[in-house]
Amino acid sequence: MSPTHAVDDLLRTLAPQVVGIVSRRFGDFNGAEDATQEALIAAARRWPGEGVPDQPRAWLVRVASRRLVDTWRSDSARREREARVVAWDVPATDAPDRDDSLTVLFLCCHPALTPASAIALTLRAVGGLTTAEIARAFLVPEATMAQRISRAKTQIRQSGERFRMPSGADRDQRLRSVLHVLYLVFNEGYTSTRGEQLQRVDLCGEAIRMTRLLVAGSPSDPEALGLLALMLLLDARRPARTDVSGRLVPLPEQDRSLWDRGLAAEGVDLLGRAMAHRDVGEYQLQAAIAAAHDRARSAEATDWSEISELYGLLESVTGNPVVTLNRAVAVAMADGPEQGLRLVDSVADRLGDTQRWLGVRGHLLEMVGDTDAAADHLERAASVAVNVAEQRHLLAQVARLRHTGTP
Predict the structure, then answer these.
(1) How many other CB atoms are found less than 10 A from the CB of residue 112?
(2) Are 233 and 255 in contact (CB under 8 A)?
(3) Span 87-91, mean pLDDT?
(4) Residues 6+ apart with CB under 8 A from 290
(5) Taking the CA atoms of the chain, what radius of gyration do you get in angstroms?
(6) In whole angstroms, what is the distance from residue 318 CA to residue 330 CA?
(7) How far is CA 389 from CA 238, 330, 386, in A?
(8) Are the C-beta atoms of residues 21 and 61 closer than 8 Å to each other?
(9) Among candidates 319, 227, 242, 309, which has minimal Cα distance to 273?
(10) What is the pTM of this model?
(11) Whole-number mean pLDDT of the chain?
């Protein structure tokens, strides 16, 4: 690993710890988060060449604290607060057993925030990514992402939220928000909503790292275990999801020898630990579906009946029409495409103009032999696709069905 990459990994680990320490001591999450970003940028520029300090976290705390004091000094309306901190001497070290990373994560996933705002703030405060990096990941202007993060922090400040770990019912509610945000970050990395690349490996990696952090702090929470299991089981397929040219390779056509069996085994183990609690939720069910695919040594060996039953349970838990679409594919494989088409048509009023619905219906129409209608559906799906890799894959299927391309 190069010095720069080693420093980047260290900074991402330390970022939430530093935000937590500075927030706790100064009582200002907004200012602490901004100051920590500046400290991280300074370290990223200096440490690869000068070497990592003996106490890297203390170095970042000192720099962030000084930046925060400088910011307060520049605001004449805050003289009283300046007086309170000018005399404060930043210690060289902090209590080694105090890590506020989870508190920062829970604060960033405040229920009052929109998912988009919570994702951006989480990636910056917990993931240690710069605003520019987050903007590039989501293909929006840096100024737009900066405004999103600023609004999120303003909402947290206006809510009167204290810098503390929530407890009781509040923690349970916040945990659901945290799991949802981490799930959305991973999904954006697994299949990007925009751009030419199918996958954004950095976002998947950050989602997995932050979920590991959550599991370390909540080792007996079945849904946290289930979410990490799901991420690992899906990420295990990453090497086979695209070919050397970046073309999407559908699951049935993937070279399963390329799958990371170590990640898959870890995911299965985590799923077993989660299921042992006998409190099954949506992430555990999704992980169970992923595990059923990962256990099959070939597409032909897939147990579609099991997967269909699992999707039925997931559908009853979530009521999500997208789950119904996924169940339709499993039912078509287990019981015939006509059965699957009936399920697809049952959610036409909610999903009929989406890429996913059009694509699934087109696939099932091909299975029943109606190639002309299948091509029409897939062409319409391509017209609304925003990911270039998916769009190209759909158009290739259209060309094949219309006998104008290579099978």
Answers:
(1) 13
(2) no
(3) 46
(4) 229, 230, 233, 234, 267
(5) 24
(6) 17
(7) 15, 24, 9
(8) yes
(9) 227
(10) 0.84
(11) 89
